[in-house]
Amino acid sequence: MISKKDLRNLVIYEIYVRNHNQGGDFQGVIGDLPRIKALGVDYIWLMPIHPIGKVNRKGTLGSSYAIADYTTVNPDYGTEQDFKHLVDTAHDLGLKVMIDVVYNHTSPDSVLVQEHKEWFRLDVRGNPTTSVPDWSDIVELDHSHPELHEYLVKAIQKWSALGVDGYRCDVASLVPLEFWYKARAAAAAINQDTIWLAESVHPDWVAERRRNGLFALSDSELYHVFDITYDYDIFRAWERAVKGDLDTRYYLDLLYLQNAIYPVDYIKLRYVENHDTDRVMELAPTRQQALAWTAFQAFNKGAWLIYAGEESATPHKPDHFEKDVMPWGNYELTPLIQKLVALKKDPAQVTGELHFLTSQPLIQAVWLAQPTSLVGIFNTSAVKGEFPTEFPDGTYQDLLSGEDFVIRDHKMNVPVMACIFHCALSNFKPTRKMLLV
Fold it and tell me: pTM above the 0.90 mark?
């Protein structure tokens, strides 16, 4: 049985089937699986694979999160047999498969609306509605109905029986724990190693919903059921730090806060981008800073998410509602990502403890472990020249560039983007004074 500690070093690759290639179907993803596997990732995550509703559809093709039927596949993507072939091919390559489940809402013309309108949040006229006005293409489920839970659990059982290894749960914070317990148990009965990733939401939204008498779970509550949660709890601070609008020390302090307020074995999903955020190449002031932050988030404590297109350094975020094929280019960041993925499995990251030593102008961090620690230095401020460091003098190999560099008199040259290296630190103990200066 997979352990929580094993999950801390997972690498997940997110795929939007419609826009992954010109074909926009399962077969196109199947053809790309060997390349994705070569990145070193553990799981592929498929954004929703189900049919999309037509009523109140946004754009020409609609959002994949406005689901019409939880029990079938989008015919534009292929057949159920095609999906099973994708799962089997992934398994043959050593990849596991996670699918997106959206159990807070459906499209207004979904099978469930037609068959069980009473299972929805209803307006004063008795029509299905939503508590989020911006989500005009969906209607919200009412989880007070045990029969609804039974229906959704059967859907989970179907996909698990087809070989699905994990579930990314859309706006998991808006769905009661009572249901998530049932869903997890149902999947575990088929595959005890099924993993559960919660799209936990921004804390200001949790607070706003609660002020308005609406339901919302905190990340701490979600950890009762889920293995991994999003890091939206501190993501806005990270975005401001990347743009240069917030001292990086504040963001690193929030990472320490997570260690104090969540369970000891908590796992966060780290990323520089996903389908709902800006691309890091658009967010960061320079390309090198974008790469420095990418390296840092791979080095950070938690599972790491790669959003398809990241390996091509694209600033383009595909449209949710239209055909908008990924501009793949030459996959220029593949070598860097492969190295970062490999380092995610480094023994120091697997068994060690992460410490941050400085925040400005560079982040210096270390996975302290015996006999060899893993040190990361990230030039998130795009500075040049020499800088002081607490690491021992000597010659080291940068595991990202493959080149040697020297620390002399506790000084070294600033890396253009980042450098990561092994270092024996048997007597090295970070002090309170050293941290985050």
Answer: yes
